[in-house]
Design a protein that fits this description.
Pfam family, one: Thioredoxin_4
Helix content: 40-55%
CATH topology: Glutaredoxin
Family: Belongs to the thioredoxin family. DsbA subfamily.
InterPro entries: Thioredoxin-like_fold (IPR012336), Thioredoxin-like_sf (IPR036249), Thioredoxin_domain (IPR013766)
CATH architecture: 3-Layer(aba) Sandwich
Largest sheet: 6 strands, mixed
Number of strands: 6
Shape: elongated
Radius of gyration: 19 Å
CATH superfamily: Glutaredoxin
Distance between the termini: 48 Å
CATH class: Alpha Beta
Number of helices: 9
Order of helices and strands: HEEEHEHHHHHHEEH
Number of domains: 1
Keywords: Disulfide bond, Membrane, Oxidoreductase, Redox-active center, Signal, Transmembrane, Transmembrane helix
Protein name: Thioredoxin domain-containing protein
Strand order of the largest sheet: 1-6-5-3-4-2
Length: 222
């Protein structure tokens, strides 16, 4: 089969699977690796975990929604092995509620419930992605999470919080992020999503690689 034929077949297969709702996970873009600074990100899992997954996401992104649940399940199943970090990458040029949903997550995070808001924003995405006033919808989610609404409102309206989100967006762009979700797994860049099982395998492979590297450094070749 010629190169052109293989390429065409690949495009057809991808198109068919995409229609069926499959999300692909691939190494893509440049650079392929980067030392990602996560000090301003929202974290779940131990700082000492051998595997760190950094997600640049947009809560109004359909692909992010599809990728989120399998990723969260895999991370939960590998608690002692992986830390998940979220950084904002709201694509406001095409997603009218991207910024307001990011602000809602920050406000929830300030009250210790970032990941609860993260989950709810994706679960309810189809209900708010096309409405003009997403902020009111997000406020309802905040109430359901039993947040202090005065604190919530103050955080959402705080310009420094929006500045933080935009700073993460600019930072992602500097790393070559140009789509969502983009993930860095131990500083290796990927785009798209995976099944729970694929995530678990990737995490296990990374743990094995870390152990191998550690063993090699302790027993250098003479």
């Amino acid at each position: 089969m010629s190169g052109d034929s293989k390429f065409f077949l690949g495009v057809v297969v991808v198109a068919i699977l995409a229609i069926g709702g499959v999300v692909f996970f691939s190494r893509s873009g440049s650079p392929d690796t980067a030392n990602v600074d996560v000090k301003d990100g929202w974290k779940t899992g131990s700082d000492s975990a051998p595997v760190k997954i950094v997600e640049f996401g947009d809560f109004q992104c359909g692909a992010c929604k599809l990728a989120a649940e399998p990723l969260r399940q895999a991370v939960e199943s590998r608690k002692n092995k992986v830390q998940l970090v979220y950084l904002h990458f709201p694509i406001i040029s095409i997603h009218q509620n991207a910024m307001s949903s990011a602000l809602a997550s920050e406000a929830a995070g300030e009250q210790g419930k970032f990941w609860e808001m993260y989950d709810q924003l994706y679960v309810t995405q189809s209900q708010w992605e096309k409405i003009s006033d997403g902020a009111s919808f997000f406020r309802q989610i905040a109430q359901s999470l039993k947040l202090d609404m005065n604190k919530y409102d103050n955080t959402v309206s705080d310009r420094s919080v929006e500045k933080k989100i935009n700073s993460q967006l600019s930072y992602g762009t500097s790393l070559g992020v140009d789509r969502t979700p983009t993930l860095f797994v131990n500083n290796k860049k990927y785009t798209g999503g995976r099944t729970v099982e694929q995530w678990q395998q990737l995490i296990d492979d990374e743990v094995a690689a870390v152990k191998k590297n550690a063993s090699g450094s302790q027993n250098p070749t003479k």
